[in-house]
Amino acid sequence: MNEPRNWLEPIAGGTRVAALGVLLSVGAAWGQLTEKAPEELTDVGIEEHLDAVLPLELTFRDETGQEVALGSFFRAGHPVVLNLVYFDCPMLCNVFLDGFTASLQDLDWTPGQEFEVVTVSIDPEDDAAGALKKRERYVEVLGRPEAAQGWHFLTGSQENITALANAVGFRYRLDDMSGEYQHTTAIFLATPEGRLSRYLYGVQFDPRTLRLSLVEASDGRIGTATDQILLFCFSYDHTAGRYGPAAMNLMRAFGALCVVALGSFIALNVRRESRRKSAVTLGA
C-alpha cells in the first residue's frame, strides 16, 4: 500500500499543526456565522461516553496480520490511549499522528512500558502492510525503537470497526464523491480494565494534561508523588480541555499545610521551653 500523499508535508511539523489550527478555527467561525453545520458534517463528531466499558471482545488484525482481541492490549497498571484514523487519509490523520507523536516525545514515559497506544483504522480496506508501515514510520519519528512493542496499529472488519466507534462515540462518514472519510480527531484514554476515563481533543496535546490523564486513568498506579499532588490540587476542565486549579482541594491542601506548620511551630516552642527550664534547674 502506497503512503498517502500529504499536501502539508513540505511544511515544518509545528507550522503544519498551526496551519491546521487556523483551518479549524475558520471552520468554527463559519459555523457560528451560519448557525448550522454543513450538511456533510452533520453526522461527524464525538459524543463522550465516559466510564463506558469498551467492547474488549472485539477482534482486529495487527501489523503481522494476526487476529488479536482488543482486550489483549489491556493489562494491570497500564492505561491505554486509543485513537481512530485511516491510513490513506490525505491530511487530517497524518497531521493528528504527527502532533500526537510530538506530544509523546515530551513525555518521559514510553508506549509499552507505562502505557499502551492502540491506533485503529476506520477503513475496512486497510491491511496489515499499511498498519506496519504506519507503525514503523511513527516509532521512528518518536525516536524510541522500544515503543514498537507498545504502539499497535490495527485493522478490522466494518462490523467491528463500527462497534468500536459507537462504543467511544466516534461519528464519521464516507464521502461517496471523494472516497474519503470525514471525521474529527481525539484520543480516548481508558483504564487498564477498559473503561473510558478521558477524552482529549485536537491534533497535539499539552504534555502535562496527557501525563495527568494517564496517571488518572491508571488510578495512580503510574506516576510520581508529585503527580498525585497535582491531581489532588487540579481537576480536569472540560471547557478548557486541560487540568485547572480545583478551588476546594487547594483550600484543603493549604489548610493542611497551615495545620502542619502550626503544629511544627508549637512543638518547636515546647522543646525550647523544656530546654530552658532544664537549663535553669541545672543552674540552680
Topology, pairings included?
Blueprint: H1 13-34, E1 45-46, E2 59-61, E3 67-69, E4 80-85, H2 92-105, E5 116-121, H3 128-142, E6 151-154, H4 158-168, E7 170-171, E8 173-174, E9 181-182, E10 186-190, E11 196-201, H5 207-217, H6 225-233, E12 234-237, E13 242-245, H7 247-283
Parallel strand pairs: 4-5, 5-6
Antiparallel strand pairs: 1-7, 2-3, 4-10, 8-9, 10-11, 12-13
Helix pairs in contact: 1-2, 2-3, 5-6
Folded structure, characterized:
Helix 2 links the parallel strand 4 (80-85) and strand 5. The chain has a 5-stranded mixed beta sheet, with helices on both faces. Strands 1-7 form a two-stranded antiparallel sheet. The chain is built from 7 helices and 13 strands. It has a domain at 13-204: Glutaredoxin, CATH 3.40.30.10. Helix 1 crosses helix 2. It is of the alpha+beta class and 284 residues long. The protein is 42% helix and 17% strand. The longest helix is centred in the C-terminal third of the chain and has 37 residues, at 247-283.
User: Which spans of ≥5 residues are poorly predicted at pLDDT below 50?
Assistant: 1-34, 247-260
According to CATH, what is the class of one domain? Answer: Alpha Beta
Q: What helical percentage do the residues reach?
A: 40-55%
- Tell me the Rg in angstroms: 25 Å
Assign the CATH topology of one domain.
Glutaredoxin
Q: What is the level-2 CATH architecture name of one domain?
A: 3-Layer(aba) Sandwich
CATH superfamily of one domain: Glutaredoxin
Briefly note the structural class of the backbone. alpha+beta
The N- and C-terminal alpha carbons lie at a distance of 96 Å
